[in-house]
Amino acid sequence: MRLDVASVNRQITDAVTQINTTVLAAASAQAIGTIYQVLAQAAGLSMQNAVARQQQMNTINSAVTTQGVNLLYSLPTSVAARSTTEYDAAALVALLIELRALLQSLPAQRSANSQS
Protein backbone atom coordinates (compact mmCIF):
# COMPACT_ATOMS: atom_id res chain seq x y z
CA MET A 1 0.00 0.00 0.00
CA ARG A 2 1.45 3.28 -1.12
CA LEU A 3 0.76 6.47 0.86
CA ASP A 4 0.31 9.61 -1.09
CA VAL A 5 1.47 12.86 0.49
CA ALA A 6 -1.79 14.51 -0.49
CA SER A 7 -3.75 11.85 1.35
CA VAL A 8 -2.17 12.68 4.74
CA ASN A 9 -4.44 14.69 6.97
CA ARG A 10 -3.50 18.36 7.20
CA GLN A 11 -3.85 18.32 11.01
CA ILE A 12 -1.21 15.59 11.25
CA THR A 13 1.29 17.51 9.14
CA ASP A 14 0.65 20.65 11.23
CA ALA A 15 1.19 18.71 14.47
CA VAL A 16 4.45 17.22 13.19
CA THR A 17 5.64 20.63 12.04
CA GLN A 18 4.81 22.19 15.41
CA ILE A 19 6.65 19.46 17.30
CA ASN A 20 9.71 19.87 15.08
CA THR A 21 9.66 23.62 15.62
CA THR A 22 9.33 23.18 19.38
CA VAL A 23 12.23 20.72 19.52
CA LEU A 24 14.49 22.98 17.47
CA ALA A 25 13.58 26.03 19.57
CA ALA A 26 14.19 24.25 22.87
CA ALA A 27 17.54 22.78 21.82
CA SER A 28 19.44 26.06 22.11
CA ALA A 29 17.96 26.79 25.54
CA GLN A 30 18.90 23.31 26.76
CA ALA A 31 22.43 23.71 25.40
CA ILE A 32 22.90 27.02 27.19
CA GLY A 33 21.50 25.52 30.38
CA THR A 34 24.02 22.69 30.14
CA ILE A 35 26.84 25.18 29.58
CA TYR A 36 25.79 27.14 32.67
CA GLN A 37 25.73 23.96 34.76
CA VAL A 38 29.22 22.97 33.59
CA LEU A 39 30.52 26.47 34.30
CA ALA A 40 29.03 26.46 37.80
CA GLN A 41 30.51 23.04 38.54
CA ALA A 42 33.97 24.13 37.32
CA ALA A 43 33.85 27.29 39.43
CA GLY A 44 32.77 25.32 42.50
CA LEU A 45 35.51 22.75 41.99
CA SER A 46 38.18 25.43 41.62
CA MET A 47 37.03 27.06 44.87
CA GLN A 48 37.13 23.68 46.59
CA ASN A 49 40.69 23.13 45.33
CA ALA A 50 41.73 26.59 46.55
CA VAL A 51 40.39 25.87 50.03
CA ALA A 52 42.16 22.49 50.14
CA ARG A 53 45.42 24.10 49.00
CA GLN A 54 45.07 26.78 51.67
CA GLN A 55 44.49 24.17 54.37
CA GLN A 56 47.55 22.22 53.23
CA MET A 57 49.70 25.37 53.33
CA ASN A 58 48.47 26.15 56.85
CA THR A 59 49.52 22.66 57.91
CA ILE A 60 52.96 23.11 56.31
CA ASN A 61 53.37 26.53 57.92
CA SER A 62 52.52 25.08 61.34
CA ALA A 63 55.04 22.28 60.81
CA VAL A 64 57.78 24.74 59.82
CA THR A 65 57.01 26.94 62.83
CA THR A 66 57.09 23.92 65.13
CA GLN A 67 60.39 22.78 63.64
CA GLY A 68 61.88 26.26 64.13
CA VAL A 69 60.74 26.39 67.75
CA ASN A 70 62.14 22.90 68.33
CA LEU A 71 65.46 24.05 66.91
CA LEU A 72 65.47 27.02 69.25
CA TYR A 73 64.60 24.82 72.21
CA SER A 74 67.36 22.40 71.28
CA LEU A 75 69.99 25.00 72.12
CA PRO A 76 72.04 24.06 75.15
CA THR A 77 70.68 25.42 78.42
CA SER A 78 74.00 27.05 79.19
CA VAL A 79 73.38 29.34 76.24
CA ALA A 80 70.33 30.74 77.97
CA ALA A 81 72.51 31.86 80.84
CA ARG A 82 74.96 33.63 78.56
CA SER A 83 74.25 36.56 76.31
CA THR A 84 73.81 35.95 72.61
CA THR A 85 77.06 37.73 71.82
CA GLU A 86 78.97 35.06 73.70
CA TYR A 87 77.15 32.21 71.99
CA ASP A 88 79.06 29.88 69.70
CA ALA A 89 78.84 31.53 66.27
CA ALA A 90 79.19 28.23 64.39
CA ALA A 91 76.15 26.74 66.12
CA LEU A 92 74.14 29.88 65.44
CA VAL A 93 75.13 29.83 61.76
CA ALA A 94 74.13 26.15 61.54
CA LEU A 95 70.78 26.95 63.11
CA LEU A 96 70.16 29.80 60.67
CA ILE A 97 71.13 27.61 57.71
CA GLU A 98 68.67 24.94 58.80
CA LEU A 99 65.89 27.53 59.20
CA ARG A 100 66.69 28.94 55.76
CA ALA A 101 66.45 25.45 54.25
CA LEU A 102 63.04 25.00 55.86
CA LEU A 103 61.83 28.31 54.47
CA GLN A 104 63.17 27.54 51.02
CA SER A 105 61.31 24.25 50.97
CA LEU A 106 57.99 26.12 51.23
CA PRO A 107 57.87 27.33 47.60
CA ALA A 108 58.67 23.80 46.42
CA GLN A 109 55.80 22.48 48.54
CA ARG A 110 53.47 25.17 47.19
CA SER A 111 54.28 24.36 43.57
CA ALA A 112 53.94 20.63 44.23
CA ASN A 113 50.54 21.20 45.85
CA SER A 114 49.31 23.45 43.05
CA GLN A 115 50.22 20.85 40.42
CA SER A 116 48.39 18.03 42.15
SSE arrangement:
Elements: H1 10-73, H2 77-81, H3 89-115
Describe this structure in words.
This protein is mostly helical and 116 residues long. It contains three helices and no strands.
Distance between the termini: 67 Å
Percent helix among the residues? over 70%
> Shape, please?
rod-shaped
Structural class: mainly alpha
Which H/E pattern describes the elements? HHH
Provide the residue-averaged pLDDT: 80
Largest beta-sheet details: none
Strand tally is 0
Residue share in β-strands: under 5%
Low-confidence stretches: none
Domain count: the total is 1
Radius of gyration, in angstroms, nearest whole number:
35 Å
Count of helical stretches: 3
Concise structural overview:
The protein has 3 helices and no strands. The protein is mainly α and 116 residues long.
Descriptive tags:
116 residues; mainly alpha
